[in-house]
Amino acid sequence: MNRRPRELVQLAGEWKGGVPAHGTMVEEKLDGVRACWIGGELLTREGTPIGGIGHIAYRLRSIEKAVGHGIFFDGEFLAPGGFRATLRHIGQGLRAPEQGTLHLFDAMPAPAWAAGGTDRPLYERKARLRRWVALAADPALSWEWRPGTHGREPKEPALAVIPDTWCATQADVERLANEIWARGGEGVVLKDAESGYRRARTADWLKYKQRGWSTRQVA
Length: 219
Known about the structure:
Blueprint lengths: L10 E4 L9 E6 L3 E6 L2 E4 L9 H14 L3 E8 L4 H9 L9 E9 H5 L2 E2 L3 H12 L25 E3 L2 E4 L2 H13 L4 E5 L5 E2 L2 E9 L10
Parallel strand pairs: 1-12, 6-8
Antiparallel strand pairs: 2-9, 2-10, 3-4, 3-5, 5-6, 7-11, 10-12
């Protein structure tokens, strides 16, 4: 009998240096809160529902409708004002005002997530994610307002796909991380582009953060 994974999402290990001979995919690690779309809800990695995300839910549901099935989306939720503002937003629960952006970096059909993950390689999942996000309904282009909004939408985009780049050497990774730190960012995540997705902590993803970030309390 297979045991259900304890984690809702795949978690990264710590980067200790080194890069494979063929290089590695690298994404910026945003200073927000990990968030995933499961069964029509946006949840933190601990399973706490995030309120005030009607604009995000509207678009994610429109993607699911367009492709004809449920989708698990994985990303980082960020409210205007940064990390602490994001924690305050989540702390308000369902009373939170509608705001924030879901910065996506992975996705798969809901049944694959329920089964514990997928063997489909990351580079294919990321390309499909971009295609899926392009299908999202945009109220600004519709003749009808989104229900309950009277035409008022948050100023920030509801969805974004986190860009990725390719680093051939350790020096490339460190250079990119230093550029991000110089503008106040958190760091980077190195990802094996050929790897699947597992709801567990894995060495396929490795985070590289500036000293001090790891001591913060993250939801």
